[in-house]
Amino acid sequence: MKDSVAAVILAAGHGRRVGIGKHKLQLGARTFLQEAVETSVRGGFSPVICVVAPDEHAGVASLFDNTVSVVVNPDADRGMLSSVIEGIRHAGDCRAALVFPVDHPFVRPETLLDLLRRSADRPGHFIKPVYHGRGGHPVVIPASAFDVILKASSSLTLRGVIAESGIPVERVEVNDKGVLRNINTFEDLHEE
């Protein structure tokens, strides 16, 4: 497991702007969460860990076989970093973890393969995808940063933790606009 890189899919948000948890939104025949899991697997990440709100555990667990771990964030209202912490806590002794917000359903598996390769070339670095100079998601977190994240103040964002950590960030230019497409409203689904 030491050579593996986990995928931590953040799916505990309530999706207040769309009225339902964004993990339930559909992209074709699949939900955003199913899409993120499939993309992570095809991108070479294992294990796959889905972080969900307490009331979503049973429903999400029923969607996947035992190759996907479903972890509860007991207080999802604390924000995204609280879900990152829960996911990292369950990543075990992986050499890194991909933090994949579920509201980025257009990220391509090829992009994840690029990030995975770069994380192997640059162990000990955060790996961040960039499209036309703009940073996006998902981000690979090296195991050397796990303790920093687990001890981080809940008032911080992941960006803040990365900035304060002193750990270098490797920016990877990708040909994938999906790394920037954060879906917050139904209208966002139809924008290019």
- Biggest β-sheet, characterized? 5 strands, mixed
CATH fold type: Spore Coat Polysaccharide Biosynthesis Protein SpsA, Chain A
Task: Please tally the helical runs, counting DSSP H or I stretches of 4 or more residues.
Answer: 6
User: Which residues form runs of ≥5 with pLDDT under 50?
Assistant: none
Q: Could you tell me the mean pLDDT?
A: 88
| Strand percent estimate | 15-25%
Task: Name the CATH class.
Answer: Alpha Beta
Strand ordering within the main sheet: 5-4-1-6-9
* Rg from alpha-carbon coordinates: 15 Å
Give the ordered list of helices and strands. Answer: EEEHEHEHEHEEEHHE
Question: What's the helical proportion of residues?
Answer: 25-40%
User: What would CATH call the architecture?
Assistant: Alpha-Beta Complex
Terminal residue distance: 38 Å
How many β-strand runs?
10
Number of domains: 1
CATH superfamily: Spore Coat Polysaccharide Biosynthesis Protein SpsA, Chain A
Query: Could you say which overall geometry the principal axes of the C-alpha atoms support?
Result: globular
Structural class: alpha/beta
